[in-house]
Amino acid sequence: MSTEHSAAGRLEETDVKASGLKKVVTASMAGTVVEWYEFFLYASAATLVFGKTFFPNSGTELDGIIAAFVTYAVGFVARPIGGIVFGHFGDKFGRKQLLQLSIIMVGVATFLMGCLPTFAQIGYWAPALLVFLRFVQGFAVGGEWGGAVLLVAEHSPSHSRGFWASWPQSAVPMGNLLATGVLFTLSSTLSQEAFLGWGWRVAFWLSAVIVIIGYYIRTKVQDAPIFIEARKEVTAEKKGYGVAEVFRRYPRGVFTAMGLRFAENILYYLVVTFSITYLKVVVQTDTSRILLLLLVAHFIHFCAVPLVGKLSDASGGGPSTWRAPSSAEPGASSPSP
Q1: Which residue has the higher pLDDT, 240 or 10?
Q2: In this structure, what are the phi and psi dihedrals at residue 250, rounded to the nearest 5 degrees?
Q3: Greater confidence, 188 or 7?
Q4: Number of structural domains, the chain?
Q5: Could you tell me if 325 and 332 are in contact, meaning their C-beta atoms sit under 8 angstroms apart?
Q6: Residue among 132, 134, 129 at smallest CA distance from 38
Q7: Is residue 196 in a domain?
Q8: Whose CA is closest to 231, among 116, 100, 327, 144?
């Protein structure tokens, strides 16, 4: 009888842990979907709208697009800064609070982009305000991704950590998919003049609804027990943590990870931004058709990421032996290989 009770107890504990992990994964994905919806929305609008709306007309369509892409690049300057700042304070105060702050920041910035006056209305203040909001957006997104992945990794069992930690990354194409779907719907139902005049703004305003949902979901999770224990330890023993300690203790791992992400990001954004420009300006493809093609691509991307995460666990190449870093260890903001 005691054996039966023991087995039932272990099964119930496993179910509770699985349920809690799924809640954490859902919360992490919710925020990542929101922030990449807004980040990719900007990328699409930079090609389709911003060159015509926020910059002076030089008579050449590509001039406006290039100017819009310069503002797009501001987000990539802000992202590593946001990652460092949010990583540092996430270790100090907890992942949950910082992830909630990041989702609010990116939501407010994106909503205000939809409210900006055009170049015809306020002149060069229009691109200046766009650049400022883009910086805020990039800063928040930089703090979002690493924190979301760490939150899941710290809750995950070691034998399937690669699979579970891949879900926040799969939320990136899901957010892109959502942004593309909204733009596709608007461009398909509105005339070209209406879409350029006010239709694109609706996609930015809708971010407020998505942010509220994502924020609410994130209030339902807590920091992982391993993180809470580690934070108590670092407080009691006054151990060092932060960016300087990361580079001091794990320089090779950090620079290797940075190099891999650098190469991957270049290829990814060449596809999702340059392809839109090429199809629109050179091939003269209809906007709705471009967005439909991107919908298919984002869906395939979304399905592929968890499969690769599962393969990493099965092959032994994933982080199955990695113990989630936290405040007790220098390197908390970035897992070392």
Answers
A1: 240
A2: -130, 50
A3: 188
A4: 1
A5: yes
A6: 134
A7: yes
A8: 327
